[in-house]
Amino acid sequence: MENNSNPRVECIKALVQIERNESYSNLVINDVLKKVTFTPEDKSLFTKIVYGVIANKTFLLWVLKKYVKRPHKQQDWLKYTLMTSLYQIAFLDSIPDYAVVNEGVKYVKKRNYRKASFVNAVLRNIVREKDSIFDVPKEDFLEFLSIRYSYPRWMVEEFSKVTTTNEHLEALLKAMNSSHHTTLRVNTLKSTKEELLRTLKDKGIDVSSVDQYRVAIKFNSSTPLNNIKELDEGKCFVQSLGSILVGEIADPKPGETVIDMCAAPGTKTTHLAQQMGDKGKIYACDVHKHRVNLIKKSCQTAGVNIVEPVLLDSTKACEYFQKRFDLVLLDAPCSGLGVIANKPDIKWNKSKDDLVSIASLQLELIKNGVKLLNPGGVLIYSTCTLTKTENEDIVNYALNIDDTLSLVQQRHVFPDKDNTDGFYIAKIKKRKKGEID
Ligand SMILES: C[S@@+](CC[C@H](N)C(=O)[O-])C[C@H]1O[C@@H](n2cnc3c(N)ncnc32)[C@H](O)[C@@H]1O
């Protein structure tokens, strides 16, 4: 272990590594946290700054441009020294500005003494003009949002198609720049909400019930999950509220026959199984072998016996399965734009073209999904994204395949309104012969 008491220097190194190697930030963060000895406060500061700089990248570079020629062209360590310092000055109240400036200049002196006075001047100017740095011009509102909340313009345009007012669009973009409370889903095959709340509170963990959800509990403050043995025992699973809502809307009954077309790692599969009281049958499919193993592991942990994991490309599910199902869950692969709060890299590693290729896979999957339905059966289509291309357009396509299908429920889960990851859930029913809509 490296004994390093300076989380802010580690932030700069981590951000340089993420950019140079195009690494996922969560993996780099975990690697650093394994190597250095930080206090719990420093751990959370380190994580907050790394995610904060990635989430606010456009805005930070836009501000720096006023003080530095072509900030994005500076050497990476210098660019990230300026960006981490600016992030702390602009967004964190816990560290005095003079300490941020001194820390930044001290690091620069070690790397290249001649750059120290330049960095000192830039940061001091920023501190002096701090009150005006958030003044992004608003003439072009979408451009304003793209800079102020740091999203690629095309993403802002996508989100504008599913929000009805400018205020809602802005609130949504803002909400996705900070993480929300972690939530648990209680496994009712092994415990109850009341029992789990009592056990966790007895251990001094600050949890409470999320009353709108039958099986959801939330942590009221940041809590390391590695000490919670109830997770290893399968009494509960870490699951966002939007994801729990998918199971609640699906609402399967004991004895039904279910197919979960894109099931790994099995979070929703085990939720369905507990709702069925572990009675009936669930075929849980995934196209990747290593991920099918994760389904098996989730079921073992949850104490679920009715699941048959299947290695399958579900765009061929109709040919593979001769039978038809009471419930088809298609929790489709998607762009993941709803989970930006916890994975800010998504802002920068997805392109508009990706939506087109993902949507064509989603169409193939839903085509199979509707054909797998028993008359009277239900198809749930869900994604953790909020783009119309991957949601409404796919569902409308499906509804046109067969005139016995109808949309019985459609729900957008918005991070600003629902305080959780963004989700889309549609419930489609296939009428029985003679049944009226
Ligand atoms: C959103 S994740 C599913 C999450 C899962 N339902 C849960 O709640 O734990 C999408 C999954 O679809 C799988 N997938 C992608 N293409 C597929 C295909 N053609 N057939 C089956 N599974 C596929 C991916 O491997 C991934 O595990």
From TrEMBL:
Q: Name one GO biological process term.
A: regulation of DNA-templated transcription
What EC number(s) does its UniProt record assign?
2.1.1.176
Query: Which reactions does this protein catalyse?
Result: cytidine(967) in 16S rRNA + S-adenosyl-L-methionine = 5-methylcytidine(967) in 16S rRNA + S-adenosyl-L-homocysteine + H(+)
Q: What class of enzyme is it?
A: transferase
Active-site residues per Swiss-Prot or TrEMBL entry: C384
- Superkingdom assignment: Bacteria
GO molecular function annotation: RNA binding; rRNA methyltransferase activity
Residues annotated to bind S-adenosyl-L-methionine: D286, D313, D331
Write out the annotated subcellular location.
Cytoplasm
Gene Ontology annotations for the cellular component aspect, listed alphabetically: cytoplasm
Which UniProt keywords are listed?
Answer: Cytoplasm, Methyltransferase, RNA-binding, rRNA processing, S-adenosyl-L-methionine, Transferase
Q: Which CDD domains match?
A: AdoMet_MTases
InterPro entries linked:
MeTrfase_RsmB-F_NOP2_cat, MeTrfase_RsmB-F_NOP2_dom, NusB-like_sf, NusB_RsmB_TIM44, RCMT, rRNA_ssu_MeTfrase_B, RsmB-like_ferredoxin, SAM-dependent_MTases_sf
PROSITE patterns on file = SAM_MT_RSMB_NOP (PS51686)
Domain (SAM-dependent MTase RsmB/NOP-type): residue spans on this chain: 172-431
- What's this protein's family per the entry? Belongs to the class I-like SAM-binding methyltransferase superfamily. RsmB/NOP family.
Free-text function comment from the UniProt entry? Specifically methylates the cytosine at position 967 (m5C967) of 16S rRNA.
Give the protein name, as stated in the record: 16S rRNA (cytosine(967)-C(5))-methyltransferase
Q: Give the originating organism.
A: Proteinivorax hydrogeniformans
Q: Which gene encodes it?
A: rsmB
